[in-house]
Amino acid sequence: MNPAEVEFLAENQTIQITPNFSHDRLYLICGEVGPFRPGIPVQVPLWMAINLKQRQKCRLTAPEWMTVETLTKIKEDEGQSKTFTPMPDDHYMVTTQLILGAAPHDIPNTDEIRILVKDIWDMRIAKLRSSVDAFLKIGGSLAKVDHLTLMEINTVRPFLPHALDQLFRLRQEKNFSYNQTHFSWIYRCYVGTCSNREKLDMVHIQQEAIRLEQTAVVALCDKRLRAQMKII
Amino acid sequence: MPQLHFSYSPNYFSIEDIVLQDIRVSCKFEVAVPKLGMLDQSADNEDLKQGSKVELPFWMVPTLHAKKIITFEIPRHYKVNYRQILQADSIVVDLHKWGPYFYDLGLHVANLGLTDSPDIKSSLVKTLLNRLRQIMDMSQHSTHHETVHIISNLDELERKLFGVGQLSFRSYKEWVRRESNKINTAALVASHRKRKFAEVTI
């Protein structure tokens, strides 16, 4: 999943705007968006808010958690707690990026907010990395982490599953002799095809046995095929 | 994000698997084999005498070993003293020098059913575990230039993991800079220097 996809999912959240135009109710696939009257606040999806703002048709209102005091408090909580604290918004990073990118003048203290959000993000990512590392070292098979947002999970996404896959591969117990497992498998297939009397299946089994070097099964298939040919 | 395709586990058709098994292993023939004297360059016999030492590629070893035709020496990087080096400190070891495909070849060696096999396997697993932290940290923090130094110590499997980590880091950074929305000319096309039509017509 790339960050653009996460952004796409995050854009569905609603935000309050104050339009400066007039329009009736809009009926969209994702729901209806109420009638627009100039100066009257209305809730719209984030993607629509950004778009309207870029066309200079509205003013954005910041979400309640996007103030210096709230974010400072969250940052302190995050610093003191060893685990992850719940975030005010499931997509705080994306929302901050989008809103501060599109409407810096509608929000008070944009620089401080940006710095605070970045600090919170860095703290959580550091915690995430050390918990991933601890998880790998213990060799645990199940980890439960609460209150992580999608964007943070996405930063470790292809690395962690692949690393675990490789570890799993290295740990797998394999039968000591290739011959043993291959023989039992190909022999079972042979017995299975004996009953259904399909010549083509027998030919395939013989080819597979040759590839796996199971000479005994090759000889059996050979005998069978010759017997069948004689009948025909 | 593009899917990362590893050709997994001793897969018959994986090119990597084929390449890594090309390593030479010194074997001793336990039975006399007629007409294969050419394998042993020191003797002039037409037949291969019992007890003659030959260097064979690794992919021949499992079958011959299962049929008890040869006894062989495992490649030296999987022996006891090297395993002890890994145990002492796995992070600074230059695994690329020890065989660009250290883990995969180790997996093949361990699957041959020798007395050392469980030790080899557990040493592989522990080494990877120890080095994973460093790979993760390095991949999330490095720029283009430093990369060459960092990955010179890693073997192929670790390099792939490193590449994956770096890819996710780079796409995040690109997103933060809001460049993932921009449509850029591909580097290949820009270096073509054939975009003359647009300039001519305007």
TrEMBL record, chain A:
GO CC, one annotated term: GINS complex
Occurrences of domain DNA replication complex GINS protein PSF2 N-terminal (ranges): 2-60
Any one biological process term the GO annotation gives: double-strand break repair via break-induced replication
Family (UniProt): Belongs to the GINS2/PSF2 family.
Cellular compartments annotated: Nucleus
Residues annotated as domain GINS subunit: 65-163
Family annotation (Pfam families): PSF2_N (PF25005), Sld5 (PF05916)
Main location: nucleus
Species assigned in the record: Daphnia galeata
Superkingdom field: Eukaryota
Record keywords: DNA replication, Nucleus
Protein name: Probable DNA replication complex GINS protein PSF2
UniProtKB/TrEMBL annotation, chain B:
Locations listed in the record: Nucleus
UniProt-listed InterPro entries: GINS_A, GINS_bundle-like_dom_sf, GINS_Psf3, GINS_Psf3_sf, PSF3_N
Biological processes per GO annotation: mitotic DNA replication initiation
Any one of the GO CC terms: GINS complex
Family: Belongs to the GINS3/PSF3 family.
Top-level taxon of the source organism: Eukaryota
Record has Transcription as a keyword: no
Organism: Daphnia galeata
Domain DNA replication complex GINS protein PSF3 N-terminal: 13-64
Every GINS subunit domain range: 78-176
Summary of the function given for this chain in its UniProt record: Required for correct functioning of the GINS complex, a complex that plays an essential role in the initiation of DNA replication, and progression of DNA replication forks. GINS complex is a core component of CDC45-MCM-GINS (CMG) helicase, the molecular machine that unwinds template DNA during replication, and around which the replisome is built. The GINS complex plays an essential role in the initiation of DNA replication.
Keywords: DNA replication, Nucleus
Keyword Cytoplasm applies: no
Broad class of the protein's primary localization: nucleus
SUBUNIT field: Component of the GINS complex.
Protein's name in the database: DNA replication complex GINS protein PSF3
PANTHER family in alphabetical order: DNA REPLICATION COMPLEX GINS PROTEIN PSF3
